[in-house]
Amino acid sequence: MLNPNTIFRKTELGNMEVASRKLGLRAELRRLLILIDGRNTAGKLAVFVRMPEIDMLLYELQALGLIDPLDGNVESALAPPSAAPVAAPAAQSPSGESALMPTNEQFIAARTAAVRFINDKLGPSGETLAVKLERTRNAQELREAVAAVRQSLERMVGANSAQAFLEHVRTSVKI
Asked: For the residues of 37-83, what is the DSSP string, one character each?
């Protein structure tokens, strides 16, 4: 559960995403990312999105490496909702910020789960999406592909299936 007094800030990658739109974030994620300013608490930001989704949206932005809690304490700020995996700590990013990176086993498990979900739910009609996921070579590429596939699923089969896809990928990684 999110501490409503937590203040988040955009990472360097988050600022780049606001400017470039490279990840193609869905509207509610992009809106929340833009609103995160390092001053407003999560509780204040919650009024700009559907209240029940604030934890999940902030977690997703954090998992994509776009935001961090201002105090730097990732674990206490935002625990993963509904048993979603937490990535293993990694080395410093080029900007000097600490980044969260999954292990190779976690990356492979997440990619496999994503592809399996697409194949099970869409069958041959999901082949293009499955190939997009299979071609990812690292966690960042997988994050980008999962975000794009989620948007496609939302358009194709609805928001509930798109959210189920995210949950399936998140819960597939064992820590």
From this structure: -SSSBHHHHGGGS-GGGHHHHHHHHHHTTSEEETTS-HHHH-PPGGG
Dist CA 4 CA 130 (whole Å):
37
Closest C-alpha to 58, from 134, 3, 130, 121: 3
**108/105 Cα distance (integer angstroms):** 5
Instruction: Name which of 168, 170, 172, 56 is nearest 121 in CA terms.
Output: 168
Q: Give the orientation angle of helix 104-122 with respect to helix 139-157, to 10 degrees.
A: 20
Q: List the one residue out of 84, 65, 56 whose CA is nearest residue 9.
A: 65
Q: Output the tens digit of pLDDT for each of the chain's 175 residues.
A: 577 888 999 999 999 999 998 888 888 888 899 999 999 988 888 888 766 678 888 888 888 889 988 876 554 444 444 434 344 333 333 333 333 456 777 778 888 888 889 888 888 888 888 888 888 888 778 888 888 888 888 888 888 888 888 888 888 765 4
Torsion on CA atoms 143, 88, 13, 166, rounded to nearest 10: 30
Give the global pTM. Answer: 0.46
How far apart (Å, rounded) are the C-alpha atoms in residues 163 and 86?
18
